[in-house]
# Entry
Amino acid sequence: MRKLHAGKTHHATTHDTTHDTTTAPEVTERREVRAAVARFLTVGFLALVLVATPVAFWIRAEAEQHALANARDITQRLADNVVGPLITNQLLAQEPAALRSLDQRLAPWLANGNVTRIKVWDEHGRVVYSDVKSLIGQDFEQEEWARRLLAGGPATATLESQTAEENEYEADSGELVEVYVRSTSQTGAPMIFETYSSGAGVRREQQAVLVGMIPPTLLSLAVLQVAQLIPAVRLARRIQDHQATRTALLRCAIEASDQERRQIAAELHDEVIQNLSGLAYALESEERRGPPSMGPVFTNARTMLQNDIRLLRAMTSELYPPDLDELGLEASLMRLEAPLVERGIAFRIDIPDNLVLDRDHTVLVYRVAREALVNATKHSSAQAVGIRIRQSSQETQITVSDDGVGFDPSEPGPDGHFGLRILGDTIRLAGGSLDISSTAGTGTSVTATFSVGTPAARWAGKGFSRSSAIDSATGIRRSGAGPAAFSLPDKG
# Structure
């Protein structure tokens, strides 16, 4: 990091710290299109995951409900066609022959593993039959769902671990499908037929449905993504063309402005200044040869004319842009110190050693510095002025600060002061932002921020986030923040 100070008697030798990073337009375009396509595919993949994940859970839940509905239907048919006809008064009286008859009818269902437990309840909550003999005759309190089922409500089927009081023989069996359906005895009394079966079958059906549904779903989403890729690439290229056009227009505008400045400076130097210089010599000659009584008049006129010539020459120096390609940014900025030194203003430049800027951004940085220094010289009554340039991986920032009288940013600028307004428009078109912070009596800080690694106007409209008011007419941010963004040099 180099910190260069300039004052009335101090001048620093500078070196160029600006490096040309211009890349062939075709290479840059291909790289940016590839980056845009990569971002599109990444976002598409994330969207695919976000869509597929809830879809998979939905399919899984639907498959579970479908399997439970099948278990409910099978249990209902078993209750109506097998168990119901054998619920006789003898079974209700727990006669051994009736119990053995129902055991024999249900043995195949229990043997093949489709059903692991069977219970038959009467309307009072008493177990009238079970494949576990110790449960027969036991009474359990009926819950609300059981009363609704006995009254004609819908059958229920759940998949869960069994931990209730009547499930002491199923507690260690893991997940079970528990089904309750309504049946009737031979006498027409309402009964509850309950079965338990392994939950592995439901899980297998879920897996089968997922395996069958997920691939076509993912394939459909992938095809949609690929179908959108072609128009996305075309859109990226069209945007690239528009941005390249804006870049070219901005570059032409900057070059036209520089050319106009050169022309005005040349006309002032070759015409107006030369004529006024000749007039000054003529006045000096008349002062020597004229009557003594006219001497003071000629002296005052010649002095005023020489002052005007100096002012015009200073204006010519300000107007004529330096050759940034030849001198470099740092040397060009140091040339701006002359008007400051004449007024006794201390000057400091702080530039990083590894500063990397393309030509367009170099011109814009120079213009920010020049315009801010001109304003500080003419209007701030400052004792010290400083330029600081900072660069990160995302942006380049130049700050010009002074310790002058400052001003109220909320007040409109004087009529005819268009420098910063034009500069703000140019920076905004280049995709940057201009921030002016000032407080009356404490100085002014002008900060311009640009994106790094992109041609000027590449990211038009993308401002630098900061909580301050924005002038909608100029694109300039104005805030009443403190004076200087970094320490200014001591005068002298």
